[in-house]
Design a protein that fits this description.
Number of domains: 2
Largest sheet: 8 strands, mixed
Radius of gyration: 27 Å
Helix content: 25-40%
Distance between the termini: 36 Å
CATH topology of the largest domain: BirA Bifunctional Protein, domain 2
CATH superfamily of the largest domain: Bira Bifunctional Protein, Domain 2
Bound molecules: 4-amino-1,4-dioxobutan-2-aminium adenosine-5'-monophosphate, magnesium ion
CATH class of the largest domain: Alpha Beta
Structural class: alpha+beta
């Protein structure tokens, strides 16, 4: 085979050097044609777009051409020419083809026909080679870049918090235990000798990096985490994963209004980044997955988010219910936790804009949130999005050592495990706050995909840890 440097298909299509000899490598998406000429659509993952390879049948070994089927991997050398056919501007007239890897059509599960998302989940190791998952993964990468850029440009430090921890950051008890002990062989009384465990105490996978993030923020001023988090909540919904990625900025000297400004500015930046950098993939998804996708993305960056106290939100929901709106989970009034259908009603039907909901009842939220003077509500700032419901959970933090200590005790949590956390309040305490963005929920929103299992390469959900 003629040795010339390989060109990525994205680069080749961006600036086509017509009439030069090029080398492309990739996987066959489809092959069609007749006894004289074959057309191969080749994709190398650099773009949603394929390059068309034109094969003059008489110049190639028939055995080789027979083996070029959907899914096979090829290296192609040929002349790049303006295309005579519709659907592409350039094509490659193949002079040499090397078959790297066959994909037996009797066994390769990804044939040309459209597959259901459920089927593709069963072959998550191969679904990455479909157009849809290629688009989703490129957008996922771009969102990670946007997030790091945003915080870097705004003076936040990337701060890495532990994955294994002995505390429960949310105090909700939804943790996966980490142990090297054989728990089936515990003492006669059922007691586990955790002093003999790897860390000498009971440990778990983190549900959130926030508590350690607060240690960073109260020293460095502004930090953000971006890492995996784990929740053993048995929620089999299109919006919950047992292992998901979270971005948690934490900022010293911030009040509730500043925090809401930060949430809104940050998430708009990410969506705008997708519009500026992922348009080919977004157009594909807009056509194939959700025809309202581009309109929704444009409207989110344009509109001001509504800022809505919980108490008012519940009133709106009660009125809607009184007027006959049927909720699957009835609105029971002040003090209720909102279900995603309630959040979506406010966002999609009532305001038709994203909503930042504030001042929730303390009882339905985590222990670390700062209480308002009314003693009943606290300074939460959750962002509710169309199609998603809660995309960000945030709050101003309780900075009083005494109040925080009392709250931890009142909730029956073990004060001992939070000693180091309480030191931030004991020594040089300061007003501060932050939030957590669920990375996969952002990807769900930006791609228009319906199920959170389809925006992460290998989802972990109850009864599923395949791959
Ligand atoms: O609202 P949450 O539980 O808040 C926290 O963890 C805080 N420590 C954040 C902070 O203030 N630093 O979770 C934050 C976000 C949610 O709004 C949601 O987007 C996402 O994380 N999330 C999940 N995403 C996927 N699967 C799950 N099981 C999720 N649980 C929360
Ligand atoms: Mg939350």
């Amino acid at each position: 085979m003629e040795s010339i440097r390989r060109t990525k298909i994205a680069d080749l299509l961006k600036q086509p050097a017509i009439d030069t000899t090029v080398n492309v490598k990739g996987w066959v998406r489809s092959k069609r044609g007749n006894k004289n000429v074959n057309f191969i659509a080749l994709n190398d993952g650099s773009s949603i777009k394929n390059v068309q390879v034109v094969v003059d049948v008489e110049n190639f070994d028939a055995e080789l051409l027979k083996k070029i089927t959907t899914g096979a991997c090829l290296s192609v050398v040929g002349k790049l020419v303006a295309s005579q056919g519709a659907g592409q501007s350039v094509e490659i007239q193949a002079s040499d083809i090397e078959l790297y890897g066959e994909a037996n059509p009797d066994e390769y599960p990804l044939q040309k026909k459209g597959h259901s998302m459920e089927f593709l989940r069963e072959i998550a190791h191969l679904r990455l080679r479909t157009n849809t998952f290629g688009a989703v993964m490129r957008i996922r990468h771009n969102m990670a870049i946007a997030i790091h850029r945003y915080f870097h440009e705004h003076g936040f430090y990337y701060f890495n918090t532990p994955i294994i921890t002995a505390s429960d950051a949310e105090g909700a008890g939804e943790m996966f235990q980490v142990t090297t002990l054989d728990l089936a062989r515990t003492g006669a009384d059922g007691d586990v000798a955790y002093d003999k465990d790897f860390f000498g105490k009971k440990t778990n996978l983190t549900v959130s990096g926030q508590l350690e993030g607060e240690l960073g923020a109260t020293a460095l001023g502004a930090i953000y985490t971006f890492g995996p988090t784990f929740r053993a909540e048995n929620s089999n919904t299109p919006r919950h994963l047992a292992e998901f990625w979270m971005i948690e900025p934490e900022v010293a000297f911030i009040d509730k209004d500043d925090l809401m400004d930060l949430e809104e500015d940050f998430i708009k930046y990410c969506v705008q980044w997708a519009l500026d950098n992922c348009m080919d993939d977004l157009e594909f998804l807009n056509k194939m997955i959700d025809t309202t996708l581009l309109d929704t993305l444009h409207s989110v960056v344009k509109e001001d988010f509504v800022r809505l106290p919980y108490t008012e939100g519940v009133k709106i929901l009660e009125e809607a219910q009184a007027k006959g709106h049927k909720f699957e989970f009835p609105v029971t009034g002040w003090g209720m936790d909102l279900a995603s259908e309630h959040e979506r009603f406010l966002v999609e039907e009532y305001f038709k804009r994203p909503v930042i909901m504030t001042d929730y009842p303390s009882e339905i939220k985590a222990f670390y949130m700062k209480k308002n003077a009314d003693g009943k509500t606290m300074q939460g700032t959750d962002v509710l999005f169309p199609r998603i419901g809660e995309i960000i959970g945030g709050s101003v933090r309780e900075e009083s050592y005494e109040k925080l200590t009392n709250e931890i005790k009142a909730r029956g949590m073990e004060l001992d495990t939070y000693k180091w956390y309480l030191d931030t309040r004991k020594f040089g305490s300061c007003p501060h706050g932050g939030f957590g963005l669920g990375f996969e929920r952002l990807i769900l929103f930006v791609t228009g995909m319906q199920n959170i299992r389809d925006v992460i390469p290998f989802p972990r959900t109850p009864k599923n840890a395949e791959f």
